[in-house]
Write a structure and sequence with these properties.
The chain has about 375 residues and is an alpha+beta fold. It has nine helices and 26 strands. About 45% of the residues are buried.
Length: about 375
C-alpha cells in the first residue's frame, strides 16, 4: 500500500487534519511514513508528526521541515502546509537513523545484501555535512539521495525521533525496489575549460588565460559589463569525472577581482579540474525535467508500475523557474499520472552521494 496526501490550512492543526482527511480511507498494512512540513509549521512539527502517527497507526516516520513541500501535482511555500506518504515495506526492509552533532558514527549499518537506498535530510548549518554524508555512504554502502534543510528549530527533522543540526534519514533494503534520476536546472553556455591555476576556491587561470577573461567571453559582452547582474543566474559548474551523461554540479559565483582577473566560486577547485559556466534557464530546465520523467517512466515499464514517488527540488526551482502555480509538480503529474508523491523544496539536493544545486531528484518506488 502506497498512499499520499498534501494540504494547507489556517494553522498546523488545519493543515494536518486536511491532509489526513485526504488520506481517507486510511491505508492498511503501511509501516513507514514520509512527512514534510513548510517553515510555518516548524514550531509545531512534533505535533504534526504525532497527529499523523495517531491517525494512521504508522509508528515510523522520516522527514523534515522544508523551504516548501510538494505532493501529487501540488506545491506549497509560504503557508501552513504538510505532505505525507505511507508505504509498506517487507519485514526488516528499512532502518531509520539520526546523527546529530558529534554523536559519532551513525548506527545505520543494516547489513543488507546488495546496494541499499538511503534518503537523507541534512541540516545546512552542519559544518561537517559533506564528511557526514561520506561517513553514511561508507557505513551503509548505499546510494544516497536527499536534501538540505534550513530551519532554526531544534526538532525540524524526524527519523523515528526528532533531531536538528545534524543528519537523519532512512536506509531502504534492496528488497524495496526504486529507480532514481536527477534533472538539472542550468544549461551550459560555453565549452568545458580546464583550471590551470587555483587556490582553494579562487581561480586565477583557465585555459592559460585569466579566469575572469574566460568567464566574460562565455557570458557575452552585455553581461560582462556588469558582473553583479550576471552573478544571479550565471554559475560555475564542475563536471563529474567519468560521468557518461555529462553530469555536473553547479556552484555559485561569489566574487570577482577585475584587476587580477580572478573569480571565486562556492567550492574548492584544484589545478587541472574541468570547469564550465552555466545559466539558469527555465526552458532548458523544463526540457530536462520532461526528458528525465520520460526516461524514468520507460525504466519503470509504464506508469502503472509506479507505486509512489519521492521528490527533492531546489527552492530556486518551482515558481521561480517554471512559472505559474504548481507548474513543476504539474509536469510530473502530467507525465507520470496521479501517483502518490511526497517531497520538499530544499537548500541543496543530494544524488549519488553528491551535493547539487538547482536540481530536482526524483525517486520512484516500483
Amino acid at each position: 500500500m502506497f498512499a499520499s496526501a498534501s494540504a494547507s490550512g489556517a494553522d498546523w492543526r488545519g493543515a494536518i487534519e486536511a491532509a489526513l482527511m485526504e488520506l481517507e480511507p486510511k491505508p492498511r498494512g503501511a509501516n513507514l511514513g514520509f512527512i514534510y512540513a513548510t517553515e510555518a509549521l516548524g514550531p509545531n512539527f512534533t505535533d504534526v508528526v504525532a497527529r499523523a502517527r495517531a491517525e494512521t497507526g504508522v509508528e515510523d516516520w522520516v522527514g523534515a521541515v522544508g523551504l516548501g513541500v510538494c505532493g501529487t501535482g501540488a506545491e506549497y511555500f509560504s503557508e501552513f502546509a504538510v505532505a505525507l506518504m505511507v508505504i509498506d515495506t517487507p519485514p526488516g526492509g528499512y532502518q531509520l537513523f539520526e546523527r546529530a552533532g558529534d554523536v559519532g558514527v551513525p548506527s545505520a549499518s543494516p547489513g543488507f545484501g546488495g546496494v541499499p537506498f538511503v534518503v537523507l535530510h541534512v541540516d545546512s548549518s552542519n559544518e561537517n555535512l559533506l564528511e557526514d554524508m561520506e561517513i553514511i555512504s561508507d557505513v551503509t554502502n548505499g546510494f544516497l539521495v536527499g536534501g538540505l534543510t534550513n530551519n532554526a528549530g531544534p526538532n525540524h527533522q524526524v527519523a523515528g525521533g526528532f533531531t536538528g543540526g545534524g543528519i537523519s534519514g532512512v536506509v531502504l533494503a534492496p528488497e524495496v525496489p526504486v529507480i532514481t534520476a536527477l534533472s538539472q536546472g542550468c544549461a551550459p553556455i560555453g565549452d568545458v575549460h580546464h583550471v590551470d591555476k587555483a587556490a582553494e576556491n579562487i581561480i586565477a587561470e583557465i585555459d592559460g588565460r585569466p579566469a575572469l577573461e574566460v568567464l566574460k567571453d562565455d557570458i557575452g559582452e552585455v553581461l560582462a559589463r556588469d558582473l553583479r547582474r550576471a552573478a544571479g543566474f550565471i554559475h560555475a559548474a564542475l563536471p563529474i569525472i567519468g560521468s557518461d551523461t555529462g553530469d555536473y554540479v553547479v556552484r555559485n559565483l561569489i566574487g570577482f577581482d577585475e584587476e587580477r582577473g580572478l573569480i571565486a566560486i562556492a567550492a574548492p577547485v584544484e589545478t587541472g579540474d574541468p570547469i564550465l559556466f552555466v545559466s539558469r534557464d527555465a526552458s532548458a530546465a523544463r526540457d530536462d525535467l520532461t526528458a528525465m520523467l520520460e526516461k524514468l517512466k520507460s525504466r519503470a515499464g509504464n506508469a502503472n508500475n509506479i507505486k509512489g514517488a519521492h521528490y527533492i527540488s531546489c527552492i530556486a526551482r518551482g515558481p521561480n523557474m517554471f512559472g505559474g502555480e504548481n507548474a513543476e509538480l504539474g509536469l510530473v503529474r502530467e507525465i507520470l499520472g496521479d501517483i502518490p508523491l511526497v517531497g520538499m523544496y530544499a537548500n541543496g539536493e543530494i544524488s549519488n552521494d553528491r551535493l547539487y544545486s538547482y536540481t530536482g531528484v526524483l525517486t520512484l518506488f516500483v
